[in-house]
Amino acid sequence: MTNSAPVSARRDLTDAPLLVAARGGKPRHTPVWFMRQAGRSLPEYRKVREGTPMLQACLTPELVAEITMQPVRRHGVDAAILFSDIVLPLYAAGVGLDIVAGTGPVVSRPISGPSDVSALPSLAPEQVAPVADAVGLLVKELGSTPLIGFAGAPFTLASYLVEGGPSRNHERTKALMHSDPQTWHVLLEKLADTTLEFLRVQLGAGVDAIQLFDSWAGALSLRDYREFVLPHSRRIFEGVAEISDVPKIHFGVGTGELLGAMRSAGPEVVGVDWRVPLDTAVARLCAAEPGAAAPVVQGNLDPAVLFAGWDAVEREVHRILEEGRDAGGHIFNLGHGVLPTTDPEILSRVVELVHTATAQR
């Protein structure tokens, strides 16, 4: 038995800026949150996480709730994002992996062929019940602040499973994709099932939006993305839409050439990394889907700029806000996650600046 709140008991957040912007409305100010806002940049995070392995922390409801709340208390962001990890559902399902400090996820037995794919375990809801419990705790504490749930997209999960860990070139992943497409698609179908089940648990517990991370999709050509990845990501977004009408966000790193295809998977919001100006991203999205509603975008301050001093940060924030005006809606964020040595005070000042600069629009 979990503490998760049923979808029917979802909070009334009609006026929450993040949700208004995500649906293409006019929020009272541009909403802002940061990928990896709950993490190593916060001293309170380092203190509370001390001695607890990452994946164990992600399955400890009280700890998840505390870590998720920390940036909301400190920065005044317009959304919390559930403290978790994209490989958590694989770990919970029984895949042998660990998160190694300084490296990232490491898989004990990488996938290399059909028999490995057949042996890949499925995720049962009870295996991530602690995540639902954590969401239940957060729903009670967050008040008027929305909670974003998230999961890793099938391609990125497959890359970890095939490569055995992080990869610069994804050569084993691409080799499997091209040499044995049938096995590849079976693998991604199974991973889409796992991802959708993980999101279903979060949605049932009460999250207010979801973000699907395809962190490594930028390693692909548009042709390969459309053939080998898009159908599986689309199935996840369609599955989420059948469960709930919460806004859906899709983000990947280095995906400037894929933005239109990523939007066609079905999210309301497309995340844009720092490599592509938001107005350029909007133009590409509009060109990819003529006649569609103006796209809603999320992003896209370069995380490294946060180390350049306040004058540079302020200048870049204003530039991004101006470029975001071309969109049907804009959620301010970084172009990737907060770097571990970022000064938390700078993040708080960015939130204040975004709110102040857009309050009268």
Automatic annotation (TrEMBL):
Its EC number is 4.1.1.37. Signal peptide: none annotated. Transmembrane segments: none annotated. Pathway: Porphyrin-containing compound metabolism; protoporphyrin-IX biosynthesis; coproporphyrinogen-III from 5-aminolevulinate: step 4/4. It is found in: Cytoplasm. GO terms for biological process: protoporphyrinogen IX biosynthetic process. Residues 31-40, 148-164 form the Uroporphyrinogen decarboxylase (URO-D) domain. The keyword Secreted does not apply. Keywords: Cytoplasm, Decarboxylase, Lyase, Porphyrin biosynthesis. PROSITE patterns: UROD_1, UROD_2. It catalyses: uroporphyrinogen III + 4 H(+) = coproporphyrinogen III + 4 CO2. GO terms for cellular component: cytosol. It comes from the Bacteria. Catalyzes the decarboxylation of four acetate groups of uroporphyrinogen-III to yield coproporphyrinogen-III. Belongs to the uroporphyrinogen decarboxylase family. This is Uroporphyrinogen decarboxylase. The lineage of its organism: Bacteria, Bacillati, Actinomycetota, Actinomycetes, Pseudonocardiales. The gene is hemE.
